[in-house]
């Protein structure tokens, strides 16, 4: 157990254990009966860092309060700069521990300040009194600051806003001395075509908290809750709304000077780069369209030439077909009637086809005796009586190897699928 000079006892490493924060010699402050919630924290007693954080832990108003409070107190030096106590500097450091959690002390405190109701602000009174007391000790920054918001605020600060209109910001407003740091918050969690808002504020009560913040490179400048600003002008550039504000009772300066200076800043350079890129893309698209048009014309010309060549070849083929048809008709003309038709010569010993639907036969059968054929009428061979009459009743034409053949002894019968053997012994 470690007891700090502010009465802060560190026990264990649990993040959500309320017993890890113990206040020695402290008690709950009395309730305030103020009517105005935004000013009620001024009447709250100034207490230690532990007492200020204890109501937030008990009511679980934010996440990881115990862990962040331990870390903030451990990271705070014993003798902070700007004559702040360790508790006041730790309260500022705890506020800057925003992180990625949407329920951090930074988000939940500003949400309660925006609503400005006593029921929501009462648990924050002790912490507000401690952090605001520390902020008032830091020297003020009397120069221009910038604030980037990833929201579209044209309804509040656009064309409908009148010059000289008063705006009261109840939250603890965080700004930066550098325009480049504010630009990082413009595109944070925003869509591609959505609008964002960039504030240029000239004031005198903002305090630079870089020495008490976890983000020293951001050059953060903070305004206390309830600071009033006067609207001067606004202008829309691309998808960004530029708003010119000045703190109440601040010397009036024309907003045009900042707009002119913004043109030379990195923001204007980025907008010009986007415009140049857009022009380059347009020129590239036009070049592609011209190339496509040229290729289309070339394809159309090539297609026309191919069509003409095809038509020419088709005409040549038609002409050739016509010539062939003419020659065919001339060849197919009938012969004159005076010329007799030639009669084919008949050779009796030459082979000739057999009867219809029968395989090819020789005029002399393979098994016929070697004799001359009989002469018939018109010197034509009689296929029905190709053998002598005396053999007609004795020779079986269907069974040439039949056992009843009278001329020779029966021969061995062969399979019907084998071709017949030629007989030479006759």
From TrEMBL:
Stored PROSITE patterns: TR_MART (PS51996)
Entry EC no(s): 2.4.2.31
Catalytic activity of the protein: L-arginyl-[protein] + NAD(+) = N(omega)-(ADP-D-ribosyl)-L-arginyl-[protein] + nicotinamide + H(+)
Record's signal peptide: none
Keyword Transit peptide attributed: no
Top class in the EC scheme: transferase
Regions that span the bilayer: none
Segments for region (Disordered): 329-426
Keywords: Glycosyltransferase, NAD, NADP, Nucleotidyltransferase, Transferase
One GO MF term attached to the UniProt entry: nucleotidyltransferase activity
Biased composition (Basic and acidic residues): 376-426
Family: Belongs to the Arg-specific ADP-ribosyltransferase family.
Protein name per its UniProtKB record: NAD(P)(+)--arginine ADP-ribosyltransferase
Taxonomic lineage: Eukaryota, Metazoa, Spiralia, Gnathifera, Rotifera
